[in-house]
Amino acid sequence: xxxxxxxxxxxxxxxxxxxxxxxxxxxxxxxxxxxxxxxxxxxxxxxxxxxxxxxxxxxxxxxxxxxxxxxxxxxxxxxxxxxxxxxxxxxxxxxxxxxxxxxxxxxxxxxxxxxxxxxxxxxxxxxxxxxxxxxxxxxxxxxxxxxxxxxxxxxxxxxxxxxxxxxxxxxxxxxxxxxxxxxxxxxxxxxxxxxxxxxxxxxxxxxxxxxxxxxxxxxxxxxxxxxxxxxxxxxxxxxxxxxxxxxxxxxxxxxxxxxxxxxxxxx
Length: 267
Hints:
This protein is an alpha/beta fold. It is 31% helix and 24% strand. It has 2 domains: 5-125 and 239-264, 3-Layer(aba) Sandwich (Rossmann fold); 131-236, Dihydrodipicolinate Reductase, domain 2. The protein starts with a strand and ends in a 7-residue tail after the last strand.
């Protein structure tokens, strides 16, 4: 008999959080044991608008939640301000975090990886859970070996807090692994308006667009002699991220370190 995975979801009222709650509720091998929210403490989730039939308790304090309920995995889809704190509480309680929050620094990731390994627990931080976006990043890394001149344009909804996106940064980091840093464009170019050329990552330019109506979109544009190559991914809704969340939950139970980026587990 397959062991059921006991899951706590943090951030259930957000767009991603709502999708994750539904994913856990409809997956035969997952059990939703509680949610952690910034409000509604003491209520049942079914008493919150949009969660009919889900009679699991709501907590505002994550430590209290873990003291009251045994959990295997925390799915955290909150905000950069809470992501690291929630991971530390999860580790302290023997719970394996799967985190979709972006905004982690290299130092954060290094320190959290050390905590995970000291506890012998798996953890996954994914800038993007969409399988197509992960393939876009991997394809871009391959293309950069042959076409090293590249710029990234990422487009997101206007409620997104960080810029550039975690996906854009991760893409640039993967490309940098196979490409020597170089200044792109005319060496004498001048920005008539500061920021016009976008952010600079080892010579690559990253441009962030924030508009209502968008979800998550990115194109990586390569230029070569007489040719261009564009690799693009579009998420039309948050359901596109759920297969990746499911894969991360199932994988985090099998590892004992922190993995940053879903590309490391889809192979």
